[in-house]
Design a protein that fits this description.
The chain is 28% helix and 18% strand. The strands form 6 sheets. The protein has an 8-stranded parallel β-sheet with strand order 9-6-5-4-3-2-1-10. A 6-stranded mixed β-sheet has the order 11-16-15-14-12-13, with helices on both faces. By secondary structure, it is an alpha/beta fold. Bound molecules: 1-deoxynojirimycin.
Amino acid sequence: MTHLHALLAQMTLDEKIGQLVQLSGEFFLDEPQLTVGPKARLGITQEVVSHVGSVLNVSGAAKTREIQRQHLENSRLKIPLLFMADVIYGYRTIFPIPLALGCTWEPSQIRQCCVVAAKEAASAGSHVTFAPMADLVRDARWGRCMESTGEDVFLNTQYVRASVEGFQQNLATQQGLAACVKHFVGYGAPVGGRDYNTVELSHQSLFDDYFPPFLAAIEAGCEMVMTSFNTVDGIPVTANPWLLKTLLRDRWHFQGITIADYAAVKELIPHGVAADEQEACALAFNAGLDIDMKTPCYANGLKPLLAAGKISERALDAAVLRVLRLKQKLGLFEDPYRGTSPEGEQRCCYHPDHLRLARETAGKSIVVLKNERQTLPFPPETTRIALIGPYADNPDIFGLWAVYGEKSRCTTLKAALQEAVPAGNLRVTQGCDLLLDYDFLGEFGATHQIDQTRALSDTEREQERQRALDFAREADIVLLAMGEHMMQSGEAASRTDLHLPRHQVAFIQQIAAVAKKTVLILFNGRPLVLTDVVDCVDAIVEAWFPGIEGSRALVDIISGARNPSGRLSMSFPYANGQVPVYYNALNTGRPAQRSDHSPRFLSKYLDCPNAPLFPFGFGLSWHHTTLSTLRVTPKLVPGGRVTVSVTASNSSHTAGCETIQLYLNDCVASIARPALQLKAFTRISLAAGASQVVSFEITENDLGFYDAEGERRLEYGRFRVFVGLNSADLLEGEFYYAES
Ligand code: NOJ
């Protein structure tokens, strides 16, 4: 075992600084490499490259082994490289996007996906994943909704904890990855939903809503934290000592590594807090940032700053030690290749067990938003189906952050239906364009070239439309596979209009007008405004970007082989102008309901309801549950507990899984509290016709909240309790929290 202090003592200053610099693949290999950020010439010498401590987004056992071999050959002290990668929701076996995973309401399912993602990526030579993303998001305009598990702090906290546990589960046996929780912090709340924009959050909200998932990650042993691009209190997080030192190190006792997001150190210059690269370097380093990702600031700046006494050698050593410690923990000093081989990678990736998990997970994450006239499910053997739409036969259903996904391995909806439906019963056509113009999407990275995508010509468009109308008229059921282009959600994909494109809406209306029954199946990465299509179709299935087995999971659901259980973890707005709309808002002094004021002077819109079209927690199943008989212990005393029980009855002939949700409202507190806050949920299986009493226990832990100084407050008084199947349809009770 390498003695790290002894190793550190032998290191030159350049060697130390190198450990704090991260570069991407093009510095190590001649062929074109994956880049998932802006391209810039860095102005870094070959000598710096030879000392670098970590590599960004190079994967594959053969490649990582080769880079490691070359590096060690030239490394005086034989300090291995760390390979870090964006393994966000799968490496080769691509799971549903995180927003879809959020709809499972099943942290253990997410844990399993992370275990598998880590196994596959570790077999391909990765050591660290830039995941989980713990950003709370309330604004569907922000493209990175797709990477979040949603708008609720309680759910997100559980998911983040499960993800860290999953990624790191097999760290010791070389089959796990170190997790890097991101983006610390507030990144999910950019003003106007515009990516990379300013964030204005109160400290109270930071403590109550935005910090807890990060703290949970750290408590779960997360090895790294990535800083976000945005400012907090006007100070970019990457150079914010209050966040990186006072909070992370002093208060939360985080021992691991901090890393800047891509180019964020140099971005301190356009932020307007640093005059040049050297000042950016000093600000970030002295704020507590360990690794500079993809800028020359640390590489060129740390040495002169040290000489000028503007940074301390002790701090430098401490940061370097943290990097070395992770290398040691990963076993890299013993085996810099961490047991990888191209054969091992091939054996591990796409393992049938992994694909099974992907199908099951997608099945649990799909949310049925509407189902009328008994449209779904239907027997595929005896139904004449018209499958129409730009996603009818399109494998591009991974979403943006599946950077190592191979869409050639993805089953399309058409192919999945062909496995279940007799040939004569299925007719398929594209029907209409996904987008009329693709140029505005730009380029994201090597795996995301969209150069082959083009809009239909006018003649093709009319032919497709006619064919689709013919197929629709003759079918018993039409499946319309529509949605966003995968490049419309994700990083740098903010949008102001959340409707489906107008030509898709018009097409849906035309088809629905001639079809006997229409099911709208949506592939997208964020909540959409569906107000203009909701009434013209019989059923809506929100598939999200469901991953490699997503199409088969969809067929499982629409054919009745699986009873859907997904519940929204983010509200679907009624209109663009409502955004951000989220369930756990404050009541205001002039609430739209339960106010004495005359209607004009309430907190509401003149032209749109306050409520979203589909609320947080909502989703339909093939069975039907009703809740009744809410019972609540009337009093909670310190150290005690309140029992809340409700009877759940399945009045249908189908067995199913139901998610019972418990919300609280603190009626009078020293700080205004949300009208509703999710505090517990449970998933139960209900046999056909069965009833079950479901109980929850509430303790003082569920009642506290943070003030703006980060102190936790626990206050006596009345609490309202709500139990329901979603956040808008609730049974209500109450209890008092009192001294005795
Ligand atoms: C920028 C993104 O914000 C971050 O999420 C990602 O991990 C890094 N680039 C590295 O690719």
